[in-house]
Structure formats: structure tokens, C-alpha cells
Design a protein that fits this description.
Helices cover 1% and strands 48% of the residues. The protein folds into six domains: 162 residues, 7 Propeller (Methylamine Dehydrogenase, Chain H), CATH 2.130.10; 87 residues, Sandwich (Immunoglobulin-like); 85 residues, Immunoglobulins (Immunoglobulin-like, Sandwich), CATH 2.60.40; 211 residues, Jelly Rolls; 85 residues, Immunoglobulin-like (Sandwich); 85 residues, Immunoglobulin-like (Sandwich), CATH 2.60.40. It is mainly beta and 929 residues long. The strands form 14 sheets. Strands 45, 46, 49, 51, 52, 53, 54, 55 and 59 form a nine-stranded antiparallel β-sheet that branches. Strands 44, 47, 48, 50, 56, 57, 58 and 60 form an eight-stranded antiparallel β-sheet that branches. A hairpin with an 8-residue loop joins strand 19 and strand 20. The chain has one helix and 74 strands.
């Protein structure tokens, strides 16, 4: 045990029945800086280890030798680590930085993993015995609790303090908490962090003064609920008779509600003070505590055995529903009652309706609650009651069937009545009801209405009815009607809306461009403003029927100047599709570059722009080269652009949605330019001023269209969705090298570009998608292997997302690798000839250079036959002579390989020349020749 007094700390061995021994002080790095900065090992394999926080680090030491035991993640540098404790087997440690700090630390020594949780309102932590969750008491909200999942480093859930968590004792996958320093009697509760909002109140009473929840536990219980937590009562002197637990007493409790009282051995008197310390043994079999008894000032040490078995109460309660009677028909408010009893005592009864909790648990007899049957549906229902006792035994009563038969006389409540989607011909009326009901709308030019929608008998709470066949520019009255399932009708008050003016109102030019022949696009507005196809403008398919294709070089449609076309207010509408990405190009243009007079919709690079100039001082312009800049509509798909200009300024719409706006600078008013309207050309701009693409359906108005009209125009002429993929053609490979190639192809519409390639038709590699929408495609492939057959296919997706994929094709990279020459040797060497042989790793031709030096000088005739086994004969050589030679082979791709220099010696075929033959020293019997 650890004993401390002031700044001094000692370890003392304690043997029950014998006493204390082996007193040794903690000094140096092993000195805890406070009483909460020390913990004994919880690992049965190393019971001799302890851990101390000295204010600057946490160190592990061996209590047998009083020496530090570094390693396995220790020591750890940490400032003022307090409330130090750990999970079972010393798996995960937790502490707080400072007794009133804001940071809780979780540390796993086996992996040296350290994580922190920061909150300025925390009090003290308690770690889960299983070593994952940390329960942290809160100062704000008062008595709240945070559950920190250390493993996921996230907050599992928090409590509000309504069920107080002022101190908590951490068990294995359980926390038991006590409401302390609150009104008498204090209460205990527990929760399971794996289950959200699982806080469970498990009763009281407790003493009226301070309770301390001791963070200790049984080591390995067979049942998670069979764990004892210890709570100690300490504080001022108090008689024993008025409360459940006197000062100096202890409460042992389990999560399933078992409680044991552990009193002081001398609690017959009332003049002791309090327990100063209490702690479970590491195996959970005993609790060790000290006490200052009888005011002696002496701290006596006691050891008490902890109960280890589960609850001895295994008898469940009995319970039955006493009201209402089985088979009863009920309505309105009904009292539901139950009779319950238990051999020890019923803790509470929970009523259930159709298996779901009906109200809160009733914790006191008589057991009853009020059921408001109007909150549920009419029909058959089942009532049960669940009774439980303090030992955790519970019983479910037999079900009682009843029939709810409430009569509904209340009509639906209608709210949120509104009209939307108003056009010149139609509108939509919506509303809500507080209960399911049918739907109908009455409408007409007066409050007498005169028209109604067909009754929709579907019972819903969100209602919507479409009105059609309306007159343009007309005030309509309407009211909504809903009837619930009981037939109770409800009718709203009167509301009004006004339909939009007809889409032909104020129309000063309308070129549908559906002619298909000739060069004239007629004006169907009756205002006499036809268009003329000019330059490279030709007829082509439009949004529906015909349109005009513009070549981007000289093609546009011109409308001769008419002063009525300098309209103010103005609305200009045109359908277009283009893939332009650069240059300033006109779309709807009644403007000369730099003139500061007129209006236009145009492209600047890839962005759509629009402005309106009365003159150089009065305009709808932001000073840039692209007012109301809107990107993303050069994707080769059909789009509708609308410029609306009125006294408020200009607004640019695309596809029925406003994309930009610009107020007037100066005074609003009409342009006075005499410039003709040019569709697809920016007059006076530097090249390229022509727009490549297709246009259709021009409308010019001398009034400002409202947003609903713009949307109606868009929906009325919206082209059928494009579901046709591009047509691929002219797929081929150019610029083939040893390590690269370029794949090219064309499409019949603008589309993106990508090539898949590889050694088989499964490919495996691909170029990066080029998102530019073009019709002529080129993709470079690099990093290839020489002399290798590659499979490839091309892919192109148009602006509507339709994908086309070509069939598989192949190409062969160039061979730039020369043959590998090996096994070079000179054979069949004679005095005048030799045969040179060698091998190559691929078919190649044959030739030998040879001579008296490594400069050679002679060569065999080139044998152009491509072989891998080579032989060349050399003749006319001099006998007994050293010859140098090298071999040369060139493959079919022309890659030449030359061997290193070699030598061979021809044979000697010349007989010696004899000369100076003489006889000397001749005697009668000898001579020397």
C-alpha cells in the first residue's frame, strides 16, 4: 500500500493478522507529485510493478528492488499527470494533465500510442476496465458525463446532467455513477456505453452528505453484471439512526442493482470521524481501508472480504394487468393498472403497448398510468406489464387485448397554402394538413370560383394540385379542400395568383429557323424582322426540326437594323450549342466592338457574357471584358441563353435559371445603335469573332420576361435529351517509335478523349482523360516497350455523357535493340583458312571483319540471311600467323551488333630449309656431321 504525509510517500507491505513491514520511501524520479499520481499494476503477471507520476514524467518501477523498470513504452514524458489509473492487465492508462486541467490523456504502452481529449469543463476521468472507453465527469453541464471512445478517438455520447454523474466508478464495460452533494436521498445509476442513451436509474437511497465513487473493480467476473463498485461515505460526524448509511460506512453495489452495506467495525458508537482511504485489492476479493476511530488521530488499517457471488435472489416478480379488462373497447383517456408482487420487493413496473413502452416506468405501488388512446390508431392493440426486482429478475404479464374505438369529429387543419410554377397557362397549388386527407382545389376569376380539380382520394399530409388551361395575364381566386378518413371536411380561405402574360406578348422578332432551304429565316412575330443566312451558315438539325450551323469562320445570321430592335426593356432568347474555348465570339449581337452602344450575348474564351449599353456613360456593364460571366456552357450540348434588361439592370439566364446580374451605371434607357443584329458574329472584334456551333429559336421581346416565363420558354422548346453516343471513325496509330506512339481518331460530335492500351485486350493502362470536347482526337502513349505488340481502343464521351468505345486494335512498337552476340569462336583453323561461328538471340545477318591488327582491313561477304546460328569461312590466310577478327550481325530492324576483338593463329605448313651440311672430326671410326 501507498502511504503519504505531506510531500513524503512510502510503500508498506501489509499482511492481514500480522501487520505492516518493509517500509521504504519513494524518492527521486519515483516520487509521486500528488496522491492521485500513483497506481499499482493491474496485471496478475506483474504484480510487483507500480507506476508513478513525478510531475514531469510517468515511470514504471519494480517494488521488490525499488528500481525503475524502463521499456515496453515506459517512461513517458508528461507534465503533472494526475488521476493516474489503468485498464485490466495494464493495457491502457488514463490520466489528466493537472488536477483541474482541461486535457485527458489515454496511453497504450504496448504501441506507445497517446491520444488526448480536450474540454475546459472536465473534472476527472475513469477508464473502462476493458480498456476502450473513458468516462469523464463534467463541471459544465453540472453532473454531466462524457464517454470518450479512445480507440476511435471520438465522443461516444454525453449526458446532460439530468441523471447526475458527479462521480463514477468504472467497471468492465459498465460505469456506475452516484449523484453526490445533492438533495437527500442520493441516487445511483448506471449505463452501458455501447448502447446510446442507455442510462438506467437503479435506485437509492444513499446518505445525505458526500459520497465518493471508488474507481476499482473485480478483475475478471464471469458475468459483466457481477462486479462490485465501492462508494465511501465521508465527512462530518452524523448519528446512525436517521439515514441509511452513517458516516464512515461503505456501499458495495453491482450494475444489476445488488447492494451490500459494509459498516465500520466500531459503528455502535457515534464519535468516530470517517474513512480516509478505501481501495479494492487487485483481485477484487478484499477491500482495504483506514479509519481514524474515536478521534484518536490514529489511522487503523482494516481488510474486509467482498461478496463474490451473484444475487441470491433468483425469484422473479409476479405481475398481471388489472385494467382495462380483456376484450374491452376503449376511447379517450384510459387508466391502465397492474398488480405486482415479489418475494423481496418490486422495483418498478413498465407498461407496454404493442411491445413498446407506454409512458415511464412506475416505481411505486399502486402501479398505474393514464393512456391517451387518441394518440394511436383505432383497432386492436395489446397491453402488457413488465415487473422487475432489485436483483434484476423480471416478468412479463400475460397480454390483454383491447380495441381502440375513438370517433373522429375533428376536420384536418389546413396550413401553408401557396401557389407556384405560375405560367401564362398553368399553376400549381400546394398545402399541408395535420392528418392524412384527400386533395381538391376550387378556382376561377372570382370568389365564386366555377372550376375545380379532380378529387385526389389519396390521403396525404403534403398536398399538390396542378391547374391547367388558364388564361394568360389573369387574376385567379382559389381555395383548397381536404377531407380526412372520417369524412371531416376542411376548406381554406380564399387566395389569389395572376397568370403570366402570353409568351407572344411584346414579341418583336421570332426566328424559328425551321425552313431548311434557301437563305431566309422567316420572322413569325409579324414584325417583319427576318434573318438571312450569311457566309458559312447552313441548315442543320435544330432543337426540334431545323436550325442553323455556323462554321466559325464566316457564317452568321443577320437581321437588318430596325429601330424597334433597340428595345428597352428588352429580352433576347436564343438556343445554341458550341464547343468554343478561345476568342471573343458573338452569339446575339447588336453591337460594334468599342462603340458603347447596343447589346449582346457573346462568348469570351469559354465563358458566356452579356451587356447592354445606352451610351458611354450609361450602361449595364461591370468594366470587364465579360460581364455576368458564366462558364460551363461550351460543352457541345444544347443550351438556351436569355438576356433580360429593364430599369433594374440586366440578368443572364441559362437553361431557365438565372446565372448572373448587373445593375445600371448611370441612367437606364434604350440603345440607339444602327448596327444590324448578327447571330454568331461579334462585329468589329479581332479574329476570331465568328462562333462555331449551331443556333436555333431566336426570340426578341420589347418587355422584360420574368423568371417563370424564362423557365416556361425553356421547357416549351427544350430539346429531347441526347442519348446517342458519338460515332467513332478513322481510328489509327501514327508516329510509332520504340517507346511511344500517337493514337488518332475522329467523332461526329464534340467529345472527350482517352485511350486504353496494354499487352492484351484486357488493356490495363489508360491515358489521362482529356476533357476538351473536340471532333479530331489525338492521344500520345509513352513508356512502351520496344518491338512489342500492343492492344488498344479509344473512348469518347459527348457533353451529354454518352460514351462510345472502339473495337480492339493493335500496333507494334519499333525494334531499336540490336541482337545479342554470343558463343563466338574460330574453328577448323588451317594454315590458310578458318571458320568463325557465333550465335544471336534473334534472327540476324552474318559478316566477319579480320586482319593482322584490330584495324582488320578485310571482311567476308555479307550473308543477308537472317539466322541465329552463324558461320563464316575465311580463306587465303598466311600460315603461322596471328589474326584479329570480330563478328557483325544486324536484325530485320537494322539494329547492328558487333562483337569484341578476338584472335586465332593459323597452322605452320612450311618445312625447314637445310643448309651448311658438313662432316668434321673424321677419324678411322667416327665423324661429326
Amino acid at each position: 500500500m501507498l502511504v503519504y504525509s505531506g510531500n513524503w510517500h512510502w510503500l508498506i507491505d501489509f499482511t492481514p493478522g500480522v501487520g505492516v513491514s518493509n517500509v521504504r520511501s519513494l524518492t527521486g524520479n519515483l516520487t509521486p507529485f500528488s496522491d492521485g499520481a500513483f497506481t499499482f499494476s493491474n496485471n496478475p503477471a506483474t504484480p510487483y510493478y507500480a507506476y508513478t507520476s513525478n510531475g514531469s514524467s510517468i515511470r514504471r518501477f519494480d517494488m521488490r528492488t525499488m528500481t525503475e523498470a524502463p521499456g515496453s513504452g515506459w517512461p513517458v514524458t508528461e507534465t503533472n499527470a494526475v488521476w493516474l489509473h489503468q485498464s485490466e492487465n495494464d493495457g491502457l492508462f488514463v490520466w489528466m494533465r493537472g488536477e483541474t486541467g482541461s486535457v485527458v490523456v489515454g496511453y497504450e504502452p504496448s504501441t506507445a500510442t497517446l491520444k488526448t481529449y480536450t474540454n475546459a469543463n472536465i473534472n476527472e476521468p475513469r477508464i473502462d476496465r476493458a480498456g476502450r472507453y473513458v468516462g469523464i465527469c463534467m463541471n459544465t453541464p453540472q453532473n454531466g458525463l462524457v464517454v470518450w471512445d479512445w480507440q476511435a478517438n471520438s465522443i461516444n455520447w454525453t449526458t446532460t446532467g439530468v441523471i447526475p454523474y458527479a462521480h463514477n466508478a468504472s467497471l468492465r464495460r459498465r460505469w456506475v455513477t452516484v449523484d453526490w452533494n445533492l438533495s437527500f436521498p442520493d441516487e445511483f445509476s448506471m449505463f452501458t456505453p455501447d448502447v446510446a442513451n442507455s442510462a438506467t436509474h437503479i435506485g437509492g437511497p444513499a446518505p445525505s452528505t458526500d459520497i465518493h465513487g471508488n474507481g476499482n473493480w473485480i478483475q475478471h467476473p464471469a458475468d459483466l453484471n457481477d462486479q462490485w463498485a465501492l462508494f465511501v461515505h465521508y465527512g462530518s460526524l452524523q448519528p446512525t439512526g436517521s439515514n441509511w448509511l452513517a458516516p464512515g460506512g461503505m456501499i458495495l453495489m453491482t450494475p444489476n442493482g445488488q447492494r451490500r452495506l459494509l459498516g465500520h467495525p466500531y459503528n455502535a458508537t457515534s464519535n468516530y470521524t470517517y474513512f480516509t482511504f478505501a481501495k479494492f485489492s487487485s483481485d477484487g476479493l478484499y477491500v482495504l481501508f483506514t479509519s481514524d476511530m474515536n478521534g484518536s488521530g490514529r489511522s487503523d488499517l482494516f481488510l474486509a472480504e467482498v461478496p463474490q457471488s451473484g444475487s441470491s435472489d433468483t425469484t422473479p416478480p409476479t405481475v398481471s394487468i388489472s385494467a382495462p379488462a380483456a376484450g374491452a373497447t376503449v376511447s379517450g383517456g384510459v387508466t391502465v393498472s397492474a398488480n405486482a408482487s415479489d418475494n423481496v420487493g418490486v422495483v418498478g413496473v413498465q407498461f407496454k403497448l404493442d411491445g413498446n413502452n407506454l409512458g415511464a416506468e412506475d416505481t411505486g405501488a399502486p402501479y398505474s398510468m393514464s393512456w391517451d388512446t387518441t394518440l394511436g390508431a383505432n383497432g386492436s392493440h395489446s397491453l402488457t406489464a413488465v415487473a422487475r426486482d432489485a436483483a434484476g429478475n423480471s416478468t412479463v404479464s400475460s397480454a390483454v387485448g383491447v380495441t381502440v374505438g375513438n370517433v373522429d369529429t375533428t376536420p384536418p387543419v389546413i396550413s401553408s397554402v401557396s401557389s407556384s410554377g405560375i405560367s401564362s397557362l398553368s399553376a400549381t397549388v400546394a398545402w399541408t394538413t395535420n392528418e392524412p386527407a384527400d386533395s381538391q382545389v376550387e378556382y376561377g376569376p372570382t370568389t365564386s370560383y366555377g372550376f375545380s380539380t379532380a378529387l385526389d382520394g389519396s390521403r396525404v399530409v403534403s398536398h399538390s394540385q396542378a391547374l391547367s388551361g388558364l388564361a394568360a395575364g389573369t387574376l385567379y381566386h382559389y381555395r383548397v379542400k381536404s377531407k380526412d378518413a372520417a369524412g371531416n371536411p376542411s376548406v381554406s380561405t380564399d387566395f389569389t395568383f395572376t397568370t403570366l402574360a402570353g409568351l407572344d406578348t411584346g414579341l418583336i422578332a421570332h426566328l424559328s429557323m425551321d425552313e431548311g432551304t434557301g437563305t431566309t429565316a422567316a420572322d413569325s412575330s409579324g414584325s417583319g424582322n427576318p434573318g438571312t443566312l450569311t457566309g458559312g451558315a447552313t441548315w442543320t438539325a435544330g432543337t426540334s426540326g431545323q436550325g442553323v450551323a455556323l462554321d466559325g469562320a464566316s457564317g452568321y445570321v443577320r437581321i437588318a437594323h430596325n429601330s424597334a430592335l433597340d428595345a428597352f426593356p428588352l429580352s433576347a432568347v436564343l438556343w445554341f450549342k458550341t464547343a468554343t474555348i478561345s476568342g471573343v465570339r458573338g452569339l446575339v449581337n447588336k453591337y460594334v466592338a468599342g462603340s458603347a452602344n447596343g447589346y449582346q450575348i457573346f462568348f469570351s474564351d469559354a465563358s458566356l457574357c452579356a451587356w447592354y449599353f445606352k451610351d458611354a456613360s450609361n450602361y449595364v456593364w461591370d468594366g470587364s471584358g465579360c460581364t455576368m460571366s458564366t462558364a460551363g456552357y461550351n460543352d457541345g450540348q444544347w443550351h438556351q441563353a436569355v438576356l433580360v434588361v429593364d430599369a433594374a439592370g440586366g440578368r443572364l439566364f441559362v437553361d431557365g435559371v438565372q446565372k448572373g446580374s448587373q445593375p445600371w451605371t448611370g441612367t437606364a434607357g434604350p440603345a440607339t445603335t444602327t448596327q444590324e443584329i448578327e447571330l454568331g458574329h461579334y462585329a468589329g472584334a479581332t479574329s476570331p469573332e465568328y462562333l462555331p456551333g449551331t443556333i436555333d429559336e431566336l426570340r426578341l421581346y420589347s418587355r422584360p420576361l420574368v423568371g417563370a416565363e424564362v423557365l416556361q420558354l425553356y421547357n416549351n422548346s427544350r430539346p429531347v435529351a441526347d442519348t446517342t453516343p458519338p460515332v467513332l471513325s478513322s481510328v489509327g496509330v501514327t508516329s510509332i517509335g520504340a517507346s511511344s506512339a500517337t493514337v488518332v481518331w475522329t467523332t461526329d460530335e464534340a467529345a472527350d478523349s482517352q485511350v486504353e492500351y496494354g499487352l492484351t485486350s484486357a488493356y490495363g493502362s489508360a491515358t489521362t482523360v482529356d476533357g476538351s470536347l473536340v471532333v479530331a482526337h489525338s492521344q500520345a502513349i509513352t513508356g512502351l516497350t520496344a518491338a512489342t505488340l500492343y492492344h488498344y481502343r479509344v473512348k469518347s464521351k459527348d457533353g451529354a455523357g454518352n460514351l462510345a468505345v472502339s473495337p480492339d486494335a493493335t500496333f507494334l512498337t519499333l525494334d531499336n535493340v540490336p541482337p545479342v552476340i554470343s558463343s563466338v569462336s574460330a574453328t577448323a583453323v588451317t594454315a590458310s583458312g578458318a571458320t568463325i561461328v557465333w550465335s544471336t538471340n534473334e534472327a540476324a545477318d552474318s559478316q566477319v571483319d579480320y586482319g593482322l591488327t584490330s584495324a582488320y582491313g578485310s571482311s567476308t561477304t555479307l550473308n543477308a540471311g537472317l539466322v541465329t546460328s552463324h558461320s563464316q569461312g575465311l580463306s587465303g590466310l598466311a600460315g603461322a600467323t596471328l589474326y584479329h577478327y570480330r563478328v557483325k550481325s544486324k536484325d530485320a530492324a537494322g539494329n547492328l551488333a558487333v562483337s569484341p576483338d578476338g584472335t586465332f593463329l593459323t597452322l605452320d605448313n612450311v618445312a625447314p630449309v637445310i643448309s651448311s651440311v658438313s662432316a668434321t672430326a673424321i677419324t678411322s671410326s667416327s665423324a661429326t656431321i
